[in-house]
Design brief:
Rossmann fold; alpha/beta; 251 residues
Length: 251
């Protein structure tokens, strides 16, 4: 296992904390139903800005939340039932069979899969729940806005995406998952954003930051001007992200 991890988010931890979309309450309610009465301790791996950890703390007695990036952990909000710590997903400093549920939001594609699943089996109590999800590129229903977004994603910063991003584009269908999948409903993220929010979200992309670092220019400068021609004033637009969930009980 490599000693370092692919850190694509520390540079933009502030943008990540401010502009990443939140997950739907229906997702958290569904996971809570799956967990049943086994809610003493949840572990949120690669917690990022802690949004899933904090939301799930309302349903668990205790939430542990780790991320390999100390910059990300520093941006996570305090909560009386959430304990943050810095750790990679493949080697977590916790005792065996101490966790009722493990969650991974928009991150498992970065992991070393065999090592990660080894930790899942070690940490979960017998019959504990593993849930991991990702969201795809958003759509607004405004054709000109969506065309600009897709052009930026594919043509402007496309070559700067790490290869793992393809796993999200495929809806996690190519992610190895060595457990019996639970049948899950369809979920989506819905967020109303103005132009500032939307541009902030694009700033949080790893490809945006990689492009800026390699070229010395801001790839969002041009797209910001293009957006102003098709997105009037400070009006909000509703964006929809399809969300893919993989879940299983682990014996």
């Amino acid at each position: 296992m490599p000693k370092s991890f692919p850190d694509h988010f520390s540079r933009q931890a502030d943008f990540y904390a401010r502009f990443r979309p939140g997950y739907p309450q229906s997702l958290y309610d569904f996971l809570s139903d799956l967990a049943g009465d086994n809610r003493s301790c949840l572990l949120d791996i690669a917690t990022g800005n802690g949004q899933a950890a904090v939301a799930l703390a309302d349903k668990y007695d205790r939430v542990l939340a780790c991320d390999a990036s100390s910059a990300q952990v520093k941006k996570a909000p305090a909560h009386p039932r959430v304990q943050y710590f810095v750790s990679r997903a493949e080697q977590i400093p916790l005792p065996d069979r101490c966790i009722d549920m493990i969650t991974v939001a928009q991150a498992v594609h970065w992991f070393v899969f065999d090592a990660f699943y080894g930790e899942v089996r070690r940490l979960l109590k017998n019959g504990g729940l593993l849930a991991m999800w990702c969201y795809l590129l958003p759509e607004s229903g405004k054709s000109k806005v969506d065309l600009i977004l897709n052009h930026y994603y594919t043509d402007v910063v496309g070559k700067f995406w790490p290869p793992q991003r393809k796993l999200i584009d495929d809806g996690y269908q190519q992610i190895p998952f060595p457990f019996e999948k639970i049948t899950t409903p369809t979920f989506e993220i819905i967020t109303d954003w103005n132009q500032e929010d939307f541009i902030g979200y694009l700033h949080s992309w790893s490809a945006t930051q990689a492009c800026k670092q390699e070229t010395g220019t801001d790839p969002l400068a041009q797209i910001s001007q293009e957006l102003k021609t098709v997105w009037p004033g400070n009006d909000s637009i509703r964006f929809h992200w399809p969300l893919i969930l993989l879940a299983a009980y682990v014996e």
